[in-house]
Write a structure and sequence with these properties.
This protein is an alpha/beta fold. The protein has 14 helices and twelve strands. Strands 1, 2, 3, 4, 5, 6, 7, 10, 11 and 12 form a ten-stranded mixed beta sheet that branches.
Length: 359
């Protein structure tokens, strides 16, 4: 029996709707599939046993890292890869992973793009995640929620995309409850956990609490990408409680950590457009198009802010300034990205009439 090259590991609970879809993908490139179940009662176990005999039970202890590390401990491949039950890998990307594993594999840790949102077939939200690890280096996840592995060793960035495709809404309080359990136990959150705790508070509309936690996080020595994201999240939280100017100040504060990101530029574009300062708005939307978004630094990138949103807003702004040809040009650029978008199609009709009358 030849040595196993790649073990694909999942932790699951009540994933009947999606687990077969995921495992059918994994079979195309995995030498071994390891499943750790944390308490399914919906028939998930019966499904996974059709794909692998390496199925283990794990008593859930509100710690995703512990469960993922347990799955890695049960794997026998030279390399270990994690997936979530609602992840999908297209045939093209399955072939890319196979090619990577059939190569000399001169890496210890591979980062792959994680596609978290789509608009039709267009990728709109993506970020790199640590995905494949050399087993003998004994990599470990840390963090009870939003678990991660600290980068080390020989690192590569590879273009095989993993698509995260949910079919049902999760429990919005799940992660928040885990953090609050840690705090109730007297555990001090580290810098990364403070950031994610503040973000969970925001997602659950606990805006004032989110502001307090994220401002506290910014005073620490957390990771640069998290600080940039915290500034953008603070803008949302401050805006939700009517403190717009303080939110805008947070956007400008994000520029202290790295070059302006597209989302921050779009926020400023909208701010100045609302003030009828169209020239300033145009400056920031154009800056959004040209921004470096730190994708390979691990930052979250919503691609709509990199192209479609600034294009469609520049169309509106130039239309208000009376430069209809330039406005149409930006609408065409937006249409190149999203040809079926309702705003683009309405604008297209509008410019056909407007420029036709002028001619």
């Amino acid at each position: 029996m030849k040595d196993m090259k790649l073990s694909v590991c999942l932790i699951v609970k009540d994933e009947r709707e999606v687990i077969a879809r995921c495992l059918e993908c994994a079979l195309k490139f995995a030498d071994e599939i390891v499943i750790v179940d944390t308490g399914s009662s919906d028939g998930t176990l019966e499904i996974v046993k059709e794909f692998t005999d390496k199925v283990y039970s794990y008593e859930w202890n509100y710690d995703f890292s512990a469960a993922r590390n347990y799955a890695f401990d049960k794997a026998g491949g030279e390399f270990l890869m994690w997936l979530d039950a609602d992840d999908v890998v297209t045939d093209e990307n399955c072939e890319k992973i196979k090619k990577l594993m059939e190569s000399d594999s001169q890496f210890d840790m591979a980062f792959l793009p994680y596609v978290a949102a789509l608009d039709g077939d267009t990728v709109t939200f993506v970020y790199y995640r640590e995905r494949i690890f050399r087993r003998k280096l004994n990599y470990k996840f840390s963090g009870a929620v939003h678990e991660a592995v600290e980068p080390s060793g020989r690192i590569i960035y590879y273009d095989a995309e993993i698509f995260h495709k949910k079919v049902k809404a999760g429990n919005p309080l799940r992660n928040l409850v885990i953090y609050q359990k840690l705090i109730a136990q007297g555990i001090c959150l580290n810098e990364r956990e403070k950031f994610y705790y503040g973000r969970e508070l925001l997602f659950n509309k606990m805006y004032r609490e989110s502001i307090a936690v994220l401002e506290y996080f910014l005073n620490g020595d957390g990771w640069t990408e998290n600080k940039i994201e915290a500034c953008i999240n603070l803008f949302r939280a401050y805006s939700a409680v009517g403190r717009i100017q303080e939110g805008i100040n947070c956007i400008f504060k994000s520029f202290l950590y790295a070059a302006p990101r597209s989302e921050a530029c779009c926020i400023l574009g909208g701010y100045f457009a609302d003030k009828n300062d169209f020239n300033s708005a145009i400056y920031w939307y154009q800056s959004a198009i040209n921004a470096d978004n730190g994708l390979k630094n691990g930052g979250f990138v919503n691609r709509d802010f990199c192209g479609f949103i600034p294009y469609i807003q520049l169309c509106v702004l130039y239309d208000r300034l009376g430069d209809y040809k330039l406005a149409k040009r930006y609408n065409d650029l937006a249409g190149n990205l999203k040809p079926n978008n309702e705003s683009y199609l309405k604008n297209k009709i509008y410019f056909e009439k407007k420029l036709g009358k002028q001619e």
